[in-house]
Amino acid sequence: MGNDGGSIPGRRDLVKSSARRPTSSQVFEQNQLNASFDWTTCRLSSKPLCIPIVSDCLGHLYNKDAVLEYLISPEEFGDRVETIKTVRDVVELKISQTKGGKWICPITRKEIRAGGSKFVYHAECGHVFSETALKEIVDTACLECGTEYSKENIIVINPIAEKDIARLQERMSRLRAEGLSHSLKPVGGKKKRKHVSGLKDTVRKKERASATDKISNSLAVAPTKLSVTSSSSTDSSNLSLQSRNSVNAAARPLQTNQTVT
Ligand SMILES: [Zn+2]
To answer: How far apart are the first and last CA of the chain?
Structure first.
């Protein structure tokens, strides 16, 4: 049914839709609230942030215990955090505090909070500073612990500016291409270790097999050896060593089996 006027929005509809749109001050307030939330609340558990705190590659803050719980059983958390797959994807922050427990920059003494200065940390060591403190320093060693850092590993905490967010995203893509995690540890460390430990396991299995053969061969002889050990004088040390080694060799594979099963 065209041209019946039914589809033309009336004044009421227009007023409604304009009422739904938030004013700029409401947007500002909402942004402030969101910003404050990011600085006071763990993004995973929604509990108040309390030290130890960790941060992912995007500068977001989490309680360390929440991240550990998330890594063990992610299904218990509502949202998946794409930036966190292992503990290597977060850096534990080292935050200076006043006696009253306020978080501050150890250099400028500015309080670390939403709406204040821009705060950053070094991915290499986790020390947190206000950005202005680092701007004035030419040295490339952390002002707190002396760890060498590179500018590209300076992470803005809870970034708002598009260019800061883009820089952190680019940094992470670059690190992934290099096989590194946010904490600058190798992403494939586990796999490599698996490969190495796999080789070691093969060697161990062979050793174990030959040891088992030796034991099974010596088992029939062992009682006589042991009886000789108790009576003989000159060869007793050698024989007792042999028997001790046999006992050790026999004990080793048992221990390994216990841990495997
Ligand atoms: Zn440091």
So the answer is: 75
User: What is the distance in A from the centroid of ligand 1 to the CA of 123?
Assistant: 9
List pLDDT tens digits, range 184-239: 999 876 554 444 444 444 444 555 555 445 444 444 444 434 333 333 344 444 43
Whole-angstrom distance, CA of residue 129 vs CA of residue 75: 35
pLDDT confidence of residue 192:
47
pLDDT of residue 249: 41
DSSP string across 236-249: HHHHHHHHHHHHHH
Query: Taking a C-beta distance cutoff of 8 angstroms, is the pair 173, 180 a contact?
Result: no
- DSSP per position, 111-133: B--TTSS-EEEETTT-BEEEHHH
pLDDT, average across residues 113-132: 92
Q: Which residues pair with 62 in a beta bridge?
A: 54
205: Cα separation from own chain's centroid? 33
User: Residue 67 C-alpha to ligand 1 middle, in angstroms?
Assistant: 22
